[in-house]
Amino acid sequence: MTDIEIAQSTAMEPVADVARSIGLAAEDLELYGQYKAKISMQKLRALQAQAADPAKRGKLVLVTAMTPTAAGEGKSTVTIALGDALRRIGKKAVIALREPSLGPCFGMKGGACGGGWAQVVPMEDINLHFTGDIHAITAANNLMAALIDNHLQQGNALGIDPRTVTWKRCVDLNDRALRNVIVGLGTRVDGVPRESHFQISVASEIMAVVCLSRSISELKERIGRITIAQTYGKRPVTFGELGCTGAVAALLKDAVRPNLVQTLEHNPAFIHGGPFANIAHGCNSINATLCALATGDYAVTEAGFAADLGAEKFMDIKCRMNGIAPSAAVIVVTARAIKMHGGVLRQDLAAENLAALEKGFANVRAHIANMKKFGVPVAVAVNRFATDTEAELSLVQRLAADCGCPAVLCDGWAKGGEGAVTLAETVVELCGRDSSFKNIYPLEMPLEKKIETLAVEIYHAARVEFEGKALSKLRQYEADGYGALPVCVAKTQNSISHDKNLLGAPEGYVFPVRDVQLYSGAGFVVVFAGDIMDMPGLPKAPAALNIDVDDDGVITGLF
Questions:
Q1: Which helix (H) or strand (E) is 38 found in, with range?
Q2: CA dist., res. 449 & res. 1, Å (int)
């Protein structure tokens, strides 16, 4: 059976019943049909207050991964299986995940709700429109763009230099034709002509703002301080100066509240926010995490892509901003992916190859070392595939043990929570250890040095090479008072480095920074390395070719 067939064959419980299992009453929910709900604003405030007290909140468990390959790693599958398994061993666990983007659903990846018997449901709804959060973010982002262009058209009272407008329009699809556009063409009534750009919605600063805001008041404050352009005199202009912050926030009043759904085993999962980790900060919303911490003894969450991307940003941006820290981290690996990092082609992965496995394990070893730098206890989850041999699995476990890290076999795809019980027991043991969480860099460090620290300590580069415009912009940001912000590196997810072709654990290379952009509303500086783009394109054979819907509204081929 395919993932979607498994999901459609499993009876769901009313989400109100799932909510009761974690102490939420009917009045705490706003229902979106029988199986989806948003948390009420009043209850959200109460859960935030509870999670603010370390004595009243659960243990935070972060699931991350080795560097992804075309073979797949199954991070979300393991995350969901782990949450289900913790429940099976008598622990009150709650899952917090990101919302899928439509771009990957119709592009290369397909659905993003886990797989096999470790899924969140209703998977079709979650993968597509869900509760409309990403649509609201898209509308809010584009309302801002329209208001900026209207200001330029209607006299430009602020003296904005149109050439300096940095705010981009967005759409939640992979559409490379929109990367570079010209707006305002036509007659005088059609606007002020200027070059512009589109980005995918999940890379929008509004997505980051929603994910990092606890309340509507904070949401408005963050929107107001977003830097959108410069004046002719080179003074930074914030969106708040246009006087339209409230209108944008009005579109987001529901999008700021977390969504509650369930796993195939009827366990609770908060799914909210969807920033990509290769071009944004890559974590579900802080509100979803706080809700999970307040309602569970264990809050199981994940960060996008590998530990060098999602996990680092989870630690250095999200945790730092909100005074939280993980009690344990799990690195998801597969023997297949390790062999690809060891040089095996995808078509040859079914054959046992211990030499390639040992070579490719350098990638896992690097991620283990990186996670230990944050002072967090680490385990490796070996996501089992049918073609894995016992010799390969034993070698992965031995190599991890040599790094001082337990490696546990996980059969979540085939068995759901039952297949991750040993992993759950290992995580409980790790959470009982002393943790000395720390960040990779202090906020008072200059921006240039923060980037260099990440490049050397996490990406294992020898040094950083800044293009002139990037360096001058960093110095201007510091002069404007933004030097104490964390940095959010946008780079390929397919390598620890900036170059997708450098597999394994590259070292000693030059890490190129070609540009930077201030996200003053989100509260970080985005650093563009290599050829990374914030608007993906569709592949030659997109996943959209496989998706269909019948007269009864039943969707097939989503994954």
A1: strand 37-39
A2: 50
